[in-house]
Protein backbone atom coordinates (compact mmCIF):
# COMPACT_ATOMS: atom_id res chain seq x y z
CA UNK A 1 0.00 0.00 0.00
CA UNK A 2 2.82 2.42 0.84
CA UNK A 3 4.49 1.70 -2.49
CA UNK A 4 1.26 2.56 -4.33
CA UNK A 5 0.90 5.87 -2.47
CA UNK A 6 4.55 6.66 -3.11
CA UNK A 7 4.12 5.94 -6.83
CA UNK A 8 1.05 8.19 -6.99
CA UNK A 9 3.03 11.02 -5.40
CA UNK A 10 6.16 10.57 -7.54
CA UNK A 11 4.48 9.89 -10.89
CA UNK A 12 3.44 13.53 -11.58
CA UNK A 13 6.99 14.67 -10.85
CA UNK A 14 8.44 12.18 -13.32
CA UNK A 15 5.98 13.01 -16.09
CA UNK A 16 6.52 16.75 -15.82
CA UNK A 17 3.26 17.49 -14.03
CA UNK A 18 1.06 16.43 -16.93
CA UNK A 19 -1.67 15.32 -14.55
CA UNK A 20 -2.05 18.80 -13.10
CA UNK A 21 -1.05 20.83 -16.16
CA UNK A 22 -3.12 23.87 -17.06
CA UNK A 23 -5.50 22.88 -19.84
CA UNK A 24 -6.23 25.28 -22.67
CA UNK A 25 -8.81 24.55 -25.35
CA UNK A 26 -7.40 23.90 -28.83
CA UNK A 27 -7.45 26.95 -31.15
CA UNK A 28 -10.27 25.49 -33.27
CA UNK A 29 -12.59 25.74 -30.26
CA UNK A 30 -11.79 29.38 -29.54
CA UNK A 31 -12.39 30.53 -33.12
CA UNK A 32 -8.84 31.85 -33.62
CA UNK A 33 -5.54 30.19 -34.31
CA UNK A 34 -2.52 30.94 -32.16
CA UNK A 35 -2.07 34.71 -32.03
CA UNK A 36 1.46 35.92 -32.78
CA UNK A 37 3.25 39.22 -33.38
CA UNK A 38 5.98 40.32 -35.77
CA UNK A 39 7.78 43.63 -36.19
CA UNK A 40 9.43 44.75 -39.39
CA UNK A 41 9.41 47.09 -42.38
CA UNK A 42 6.70 47.17 -45.07
CA UNK A 43 8.23 46.14 -48.43
CA UNK A 44 5.10 45.92 -50.61
CA UNK A 45 1.39 46.76 -50.40
CA UNK A 46 -1.14 45.07 -52.71
CA UNK A 47 -4.49 46.87 -52.32
CA UNK A 48 -6.54 44.71 -54.77
CA UNK A 49 -5.54 41.54 -52.92
CA UNK A 50 -5.66 43.19 -49.47
CA UNK A 51 -2.11 42.00 -48.73
CA UNK A 52 1.22 43.43 -47.66
CA UNK A 53 4.77 42.10 -47.45
CA UNK A 54 6.77 42.59 -44.25
CA UNK A 55 10.58 42.34 -44.06
CA UNK A 56 11.85 41.08 -40.68
CA UNK A 57 15.32 39.95 -39.57
CA UNK A 58 14.08 36.37 -40.09
CA UNK A 59 12.90 36.92 -43.69
CA UNK A 60 9.85 38.15 -45.61
CA UNK A 61 6.28 37.46 -44.52
CA UNK A 62 3.14 37.91 -46.62
CA UNK A 63 0.06 39.00 -44.67
CA UNK A 64 -3.59 39.02 -45.70
CA UNK A 65 -5.68 41.65 -43.89
CA UNK A 66 -8.85 40.26 -42.30
CA UNK A 67 -11.99 42.34 -43.04
CA UNK A 68 -11.98 44.09 -39.65
CA UNK A 69 -8.20 44.60 -39.48
CA UNK A 70 -7.21 47.99 -38.08
CA UNK A 71 -4.11 49.99 -38.91
CA UNK A 72 -3.20 52.27 -36.02
CA UNK A 73 -0.87 55.22 -35.81
CA UNK A 74 -1.27 56.95 -32.50
CA UNK A 75 -4.99 57.26 -31.73
CA UNK A 76 -6.66 57.48 -35.19
CA UNK A 77 -7.59 54.25 -36.95
CA UNK A 78 -7.11 53.87 -40.68
CA UNK A 79 -6.82 51.04 -43.22
CA UNK A 80 -4.41 49.31 -45.62
CA UNK A 81 -4.31 52.34 -47.92
CA UNK A 82 -2.40 54.20 -45.18
CA UNK A 83 0.53 51.76 -45.18
CA UNK A 84 3.56 53.02 -47.10
CA UNK A 85 6.68 51.24 -48.29
CA UNK A 86 9.35 51.55 -45.62
CA UNK A 87 6.96 52.03 -42.66
CA UNK A 88 8.14 50.31 -39.47
CA UNK A 89 5.17 48.31 -38.12
CA UNK A 90 4.10 45.58 -35.71
CA UNK A 91 1.53 43.04 -36.89
CA UNK A 92 -0.73 40.93 -34.67
CA UNK A 93 -1.76 37.90 -36.71
CA UNK A 94 -2.94 34.32 -36.68
CA UNK A 95 -1.93 31.39 -38.88
CA UNK A 96 -4.90 29.80 -40.62
CA UNK A 97 -4.67 27.29 -43.48
CA UNK A 98 -1.03 28.25 -44.07
CA UNK A 99 -1.77 31.99 -44.39
CA UNK A 100 -0.85 34.79 -42.01
CA UNK A 101 -4.06 36.74 -41.29
CA UNK A 102 -3.35 40.22 -39.95
CA UNK A 103 -5.78 41.40 -37.26
CA UNK A 104 -4.02 44.61 -36.21
CA UNK A 105 -1.16 46.72 -37.56
CA UNK A 106 0.55 49.43 -35.51
CA UNK A 107 2.73 51.95 -37.36
CA UNK A 108 5.80 52.82 -35.24
CA UNK A 109 7.48 55.18 -37.67
CA UNK A 110 6.79 56.42 -41.18
CA UNK A 111 9.16 55.96 -44.08
CA UNK A 112 11.22 59.02 -44.90
CA UNK A 113 10.71 60.26 -48.47
**Proportion of residues in β-strands:** over 45%
Question: Which fold name fills CATH's third level, the topology?
Answer: OB fold (Dihydrolipoamide Acetyltransferase, E2P)
Helix content: 10-25%
Biggest beta-sheet profile:
5 strands, mixed, barrel
Q: Report the C-alpha radius of gyration, rounded.
A: 22 Å
Chain-averaged pLDDT: 76
Total of domains: 1
Structural class, from secondary structure content? alpha+beta
The count of DSSP E runs of length 2 or more, i.e. the number of strands, is 6
The CATH architecture would be: Beta Barrel
Number of helices: 2
CATH class division = Mainly Beta
CATH homologous superfamily (4th level) name: Copper binding periplasmic protein CusF
Cα distance spanning the termini: 78 Å
Extract low-pLDDT stretches: 17-21
Could you spell the SSE succession in H and E letters?
Answer: HHEEEEEE
Strand order of the largest sheet: 1-2-3-6-5
Shape: elongated
Keyword list:
113 residues; 5-stranded mixed β-barrel; 2 helices; 6 strands; OB fold (Dihydrolipoamide Acetyltransferase, E2P); alpha+beta
Please, could you describe this protein's structure?
This protein has a single domain (26-109), classed as OB fold (Dihydrolipoamide Acetyltransferase, E2P) (Beta Barrel). It is built from 2 helices and 6 strands; from the N terminus they run H-H-E-E-E-E-E-E. It has helices at 2-14, 27-30; strands spanning 35-46, 51-56, 59-72, 77-78, 88-96, 99-109. The protein has a 5-stranded mixed barrel with strand order 1-2-3-6-5. A hairpin with a 4-residue loop joins strand 3 (59-72) and strand 4. The N and C termini lie far apart (78 Å).
Amino acid sequence: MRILILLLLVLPLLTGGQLVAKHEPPPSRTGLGPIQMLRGVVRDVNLPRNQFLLQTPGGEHLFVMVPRCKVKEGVPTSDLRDLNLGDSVSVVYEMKHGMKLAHSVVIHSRATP
